Amino acid sequence: MLTQTERGGAESIDWMASLTYRSEAAPVPSATELESLIAEARGRNHNVGITGMLLYDSGRYLQTLEGPPDAVERLWSAIKRDPRHGQIELLSQHIVPSRLFSGWDMQLYDRRGGNDQRAPAVKKASISLVDHVPATARFALDGDDGKLNALIADLIAQGWVGDALVRHLLEPTARALGDAWLADDCCEVDLTIALSMLQLAGHAVHSRPADSIRQSRYSILLVTAPGEPHMLGSSLLSDVFGNAGWSVDIAFPDTDESLARQLLAQRPDAVDIALSEALPRHHALVRLRDTIEKCRAASPDEMLVVSVGGRLFAEAAATARSVGADHARLSAAGTSVPLAKLIEQRRTRS
Ligand SMILES: Cc1cc2nc3c(=O)[nH]c(=O)nc-3n(C[C@H](O)[C@H](O)[C@H](O)COP(=O)(O)O)c2cc1C
Fold first, then answer.
1. Tally of domains in the chain
2. Is residue 151, in this structure, part of any structural domain at all?
3. Of 117, 150, 172, at which residue does a domain stop?
């Protein structure tokens, strides 16, 4: 359970789930309808310990829910079924050590002249960060590292931190590039070059040490799934885990056997096996399940935590369970936290 109290740290932390999505109102609500939606939401949220904010702007919603993981999961299921909106897009889902919106059962920012001036800059800006995806994809496809670097430098100067840039800009851009390739708007070489440019941008966004929750004593082996040519996910993770203080090794094994040999030699606490961040190749899942089975059989450490990632997982087209992994990441950003928890839980149980 994600809500368990952290052991082994200097302080106790109750982990919260945090989920952000955007959607389009259907139909556009009147001020009264919006107020009654929020009034009911507040009452229910209060009863189940959920806090957050709902931004309404020109027919579009952006909402962050935070609270106990089970409660957030239940509410998220109800919200996805709600006919009052559509085009629902999950932007991020992770666990956090504390609430950003504590004290707000659900704060409404109605930008039709309501109280939007009180909206925290970070949340308003998260819309604009996603809006940079088309330009970032263009610069990467054009091989224009000057413009790409200038854009990233500008966003860092505006106060954006590495995790947000990875989650809301670089990974969505990789998916946009994958769509361009699927639509025949670019060739495979263009895609590969563009993904490498994002990889370099990933190093740049993490050039300053992030605020890690703790210096970890864990080790992780980051690998691309055998046969997977795209390495953006592993590359982004190496910065994320390195900044969080983990001991990190990265490898690109070409067979399951060479991955198994690496595990035997290094005995990491966790292994992350990455599929493409750009392309949703469903057929890769059967192979991945097989790879994971072999890893577990070969690993000297039965407590090995196996994590998986890539576009199929980010878009929830596959789950950890469907391939026999312990964890599936929706983003490289923030992954060190749930993996540290899984490792800790296994050690405590043993
Ligand atoms: C944009 C939007 C945001 C919502 N936010 C919440 C919320 O924060 N809390 C809540 O209880 N319901 C919220 N709702 C309503 C839920 O979708 C759902 O109607 C409500 O939880 C009752 O679900 P149930 O009928 O399955 O019990 C929201 C609906 C919309 C359209």
1. 3
2. yes
3. 117
| Ligand 1 geometric centre to CA of 253 (Å) | 46
Minimum CA distance residue for ligand 1 atom 13: 41
Atom of ligand 1 nearest to the CA of 44: 11
Query: What's the domain range around 25?
Result: 16-117
Does the pTM of the predicted model rise above 0.90?
no
Question: How far does residue 67's CA lie from ligand 1's centre (Å)?
Answer: 15
Residue nearest to atom 4 of ligand 1 (CA): 79
- Please choose from 75, 107, 108 the residue to mutate so as to test ligand 1's pocket, defined by most ligand atoms within 8 A of CB: 75
Q: What is the CATH number of the domain that holds 181?
A: 1.10.1240.10
Q: How far is the CA of 88 from the centre of ligand 1 (A)?
A: 13
Which amino acid would we find at residue 282? H
Other Cβ atoms less than 10 A from the Cβ of 211: the count is: 10
Beta-bridge partner residues of 62:
22, 55
53 Cβ below 6 A of ligand 1: no
Distance of CA 329 from the midpoint of ligand 1 (Å): 26
Q: Closest ligand 1 atom to the C-alpha of 81?
A: 17
Rounded Cα–Cα distance for residues 283 and 334 (Å): 27
CA of 84 to the centre of ligand 1 (A): 9
Q: In the sheet that 305-309 helps form, which strands lie side by side, from edge to edge?
A: 247-251, 219-224, 270-274, 305-309, 327-328
Please tell me the distance from the alpha carbon of residue 325 to that of residue 314, in angstroms, as a whole number: 15
Buried b / exposed e along 141-163 (16+ C-beta atoms within 10 A): beeeeeebeebbeebbeeebbbb
Give, for all 350 residues of the chain, the pLDDT tens digit: 222 223 233 334 467 788 888 889 998 899 889 989 999 999 999 999 998 888 787 788 888 888 888 999 999 999 999 999 999 988 777 766 566 666 677 777 665 544 433 334 344 444 577 788 889 998 888 877 778 888 888 887 777 777 888 888 999 999 999 988 888 888 887 888 888 888 878 877 765 444 433 445 789 999 999 989 898 999 899 888 887 778 888 888 889 999 998 898 888 999 999 999 999 999 999 999 999 999 999 887 778 999 999 999 999 899 999 999 999 999 998 888 889 889 888 888 76
- Give me ligand 1 centre to Cα 74, in Å: 10
Q: Of 148, 178, 205, which residue sits at a domain end? A: 205
